[in-house]
Amino acid sequence: xxxxxxxxxxxxxxxxxxxxxxxxxxxxxxxxxxxxxxxxxxxxxxxxxxxxxxxxxxxxxxxxxxxxxxxxxxxxxxxxxxxxxxxxxxxxxxxxxxxxxxxxxxxxxxxxxxxxxxxxxxxxxxxxxxxxxxxxxxxxxxxxxxxxxxxxxxxxxxxxxxxxxxxxxxxxxxxxxxxxxxxxxxxxxxxxxxxxxxxxxxxxxxxxxxxxxxxxxxxxxxxxxxxxxxxxxxxxxxxxxxxxxxxxxxxxxxxxxxxx
Length: 260
Ligand code: COA
Description:
Layout: H1 2-5, E1 6-11, E2 14-19, H2 30-44, E3 51-56, E4 61-63, H3 68-71, H4 76-95, E5 100-104, E6 107-109, H5 111-118, E7 121-125, E8 129-131, H6 145-153, H7 155-164, E9 168-169, H8 170-175, E10 181-183, H9 188-200, H10 204-217, H11 222-236, H12 240-250
Parallel strand pairs: 2-3, 3-5, 4-6, 5-7, 6-8, 7-10
Antiparallel strand pairs: 1-2, 8-9
């Protein structure tokens, strides 16, 4: 079931998850939401996967947010369940023990921008459009957007974007720091793969601990953040990979990390 709405491809320790509902601009219905939850959950335990790329099928959309056609047939309780699940999905992506790269290959509105915000790194194609448009539907962002957008672009800019529901183009998204880099449409995925493969070459425990230290440390005062960094560093010290890194340096060769 999950194979249909979510395409999964693995190569060189990188997993590419493609939201696969192009006829609906890759909007997230319940089926896709559950498929994403299931995949993110199972990837946590996969030592052979070291980075994840999220993208959308087709050339128009990354993800147009919640499936509004499905939504119109939902009861209030079902809407609450959906929101609960999409908020948890965003948190699971943010907390995943390996980096997640969003390849924003077109429209990313509402939940689409929220998926990108939950990712660690965002690259966008020139044709990307982003925005938290929920207030135009008389609701608010429910997948973490009210919390993550201000943390990325600043409180005032996030308020302006959320209160107006304004859609921004890729150039503006880059200017305000919502995406790291704008790429050509054809070059987007290879740019993401190149980054994911560079990450995959590094010590997996180190990358996981760096993500943990940044995510947790940024939410606290600097003294606590530095303690978090210290505790995260300590996790890397007894690893076999740390010794392999030192050996490889001495032997002037590329290290082979195993995650041990
Ligand atoms: N849920 C369900 N279907 C959606 C959708 C969504 N969020 N967004 C787009 N679609 C569907 C359209 O209904 C249309 O289907 P149809 O051909 O059966 O009518 C198809 O995707 C193509 O969309 P269309 O609007 O014709 O293409 P467009 O290029 O003119 O515009 C969007 C694309 C995404 C800009 C526009 O559809 C839109 O604004 N969608 C709503 C996005 C949104 O507000 N998301 C936040 C939800 S909280």
